[in-house]
Amino acid sequence: MSPIPRRSLLKAAAVAGAAAQFSWALGGTNAQAASRAEAADADPVTVDWLEDGGLGAAPGSTVGVPWPKGTYQQDQTFALTDADGKAVPVQSWPIAYWPDGSLKWTAHAVSSDSGELTLTAGDPAAPDKKVTVDKSGGTIDISTGVITAKIGKSGSTLVKSLTRGSTEIARNGRLVLIRQPEIEDEDQGAEKFERFDCAISEVDVEQEGPVRAVVRIDGKHRKGDRSWLPFSIRLYFYAGADSFRMVHTITFDGKQEPGKASGDFIRGLGVRFTVPMRDAAYDRHIRIGGDGTGLLREAVKGVTGLRRDPGAAVQAAQFAGEKLPDPSTWDQRVTTRLQYVPEWGDYTLAQLSADGFTLRKRTKKGYGWIGAGGGQRASGFGYVGGPSGGFSFGLRDFWEKFPAQLDIRDAHTDEAEVTLWLWSPEAQPMDLRFYHDGMGQDTYAEQLEGLNITYEDYEPGFGTPYGIARTSELLFWANESTPTPERLAEQVDAVRVSPQLAAPPKQLIKAKVFGPGLYSEPDRSTPAKAKIEDHLDFLFTYYKDQVEMRRWYGFWDYGDIMHSYDPVRHQWRYDVGGYAWDNSELSPDLWLWFAYIRSGRSDIFRFAEAMTRHTGEVDVYHLGQWAGLGTRHGVQHYADSAKQQRIANTTYRRYYYFLTADERVGDLMHANVDSDETFLVLDPIRKIRTEPYTPDRHALSIGFGTDWSGLVSAWLTEWERKGPKWEKAKARVLSTMETIAAQPNGFVQGSGLYDLDTGKFAVAATPVVGVSHLSAVFGLNELCAELIDLVDMPAFKDAYLDYCRYFNATKAEQAARYGSNFGTLLLFQGHSRLDAYAAVQTGDAKLATRAWSKFYNSDGYTESSPWKTEKVSGPVTLVPGSEANWVYTNDTALYGLAAIENLALLGDKMP
Known about the structure:
By secondary structure, the chain is an alpha+beta fold. The chain has 21 helices and 40 strands. The strands form 8 sheets. It has a 20-stranded antiparallel sheet that branches. A hairpin with a 2-residue loop joins β13 (159-164) and β14. The protein starts with 5 loop residues before the first helix and ends in a 5-residue tail after the last helix.
């Protein structure tokens, strides 16, 4: 089918945001949380690894587990056992509470690979080797019982030393930034560089064991008097582990202006360690990951392949990474000439695209490089060391987030240097300048005309990267000697796919989290259900394949998908305004997470994980005047001038956070608690207002759909987590629910005037119909289902169910209820899930029938859609692959959510 008419989208968006000028404010509130639930069934919960292989060589894993209301109180302790009933050490803590104070979500950290695990109430087993934290000295000393890291409290060094036993494996772990102050097009000019080091401003120990310790380090990159590019680093240590994990976040606060060659262009961004080298040159081993678990396996001074043979046992031992026998026992024709065998001190693997890497080496600085091979997609893993100890390192999503690079330098000296480049210095500098000159769009009228041709909402100065962020994950091992090939392969696997424990879908459904009743496990028990399941599988597989075919990879791009397809060019509209990167439009994030929580499929989890990392960081501002707002879909993730709550929506982050207890995503959600203040800074509908409007702290125009759903998701999450502002957040949840319900037309009123100080909407004196097809498609239904379950507020429930009942009603029915109809609407298939929800809540059989009617026979995808791909290749496309030129991401997200929710709510009432 053809995509949804965009002119209709624009028109309806204006209706959704139109503000009525209200003057009467609601009085006190008597809303309260639902009463404490009866003690629920506390059956054991089985958690298992998403992928085969368990923990492998990773340091540990943390999993979130939900509990039905009233099951456990906040002081409950938990025990973990393996399949044989043996106790497994675990560290547990609450990450969310039900309104009655009982535990809603708990996090559990483990550091042992014991296959499937069972979680029950009880006393946790203590690890044989506990994580300990000592903050008393000039450094923060963390011991896993196997390795010890000394963390800097200030200065430029993150990890001052990393030891295993009495052996120092690495030291001086720091951040590296290379700035290029001027960018030159083509072949003119001379490149100049500036190196910045990190400057620590704050260090906080967030957890202290016994199984898991977490240290957060914040600061900026500094050279001389200038500090910029803020970083936030977390280091994770697990009991008994010989490794640790780093989560590395940067927020861009540089200056790059379109049309100008000077600015803050990042030429290199990395993490660097110094590695002491104690072994003889022939016992110093280099390992660099290639495709899959492939490895370059060499020594700094190789004794294989020489004209004279030191002996088969010597050669085999060097290739295996074992300590060689004394050279006096070798063939003396080799021993007496060892000084003439070159020592290779420097290695570089550069992955400058998703499709190819090169590997080279040299003896030392100042001498020529020698090609050492290459391939397609490197694992991002390396090792340098010897029999007395060595350092393994890896960068996750290495080729997916190109350009990346690994460097080993000076391995022939007493101190080697290892650098993991998140942005390779051999790539072009990081050019984030806006991509066009405005084309004369200087006025709102001209910008709206531009919107009507390219679907891009342009405004001068708005297409800025200032404040966007990116997070990367790294792993480091302190090995007592060069690992065996089998152990190296395990380390490579841990870098490529971070092992993750997961609670099963049955537990999520039983606990009634993420919207009770909105999802169920896949069911193919009838032909009709099986067909929908096939369609859901088709859509996910198609997008997964399109990521690969279209190469949706790169440091800033990986994790996002495209918005709309161009059937004429057989290409997604990557270069056409608002049809390019999707930026969470109509909630593909939600579709993916719902697909995962009902199925437990690891491939869906990994796709959704990458999207969450991307959309929460890159598509949202974290600094500057628009902090707390996200950017609408566009050619660049920050290009569009529509900076709105709906893209920064905390709803899209909740799933990953509660399933994994990821602290960085927790930071993003907490940062949104005060994002109602952003409405003072920027009016979302400034270009289409017909009446004068000046943002007023006590009368901010905020829509009940796309705006409020973003705000309330942040407040609800802060309340559930009992974060630093949870009491304010709870009050905002309740006051806005009550004042929406009190509007003359409830949700149908469309918007209201919000008071930042009271957290209430003024209640309008007269009813207004302000309905948009966009209001409920950014997580509103899913959030309201949670809120109605959590908060006993009948008026709010009635107001929302009324909205659900009448959106897909006939115009005559709408007019009979509200005095006028809702105008021209769209997205009926996506809204069928509102019919389904209301049908279950009210017991209305007609609504159930309408839900399936709108799902099957309105807009979006239908049973007559092709539901297949066509093969394409040259000269039609750049690379061979497949296309489904009828697939559009808006339709996909809406179909996916409607299918999942309708099956769960009304699967027994299908036609």
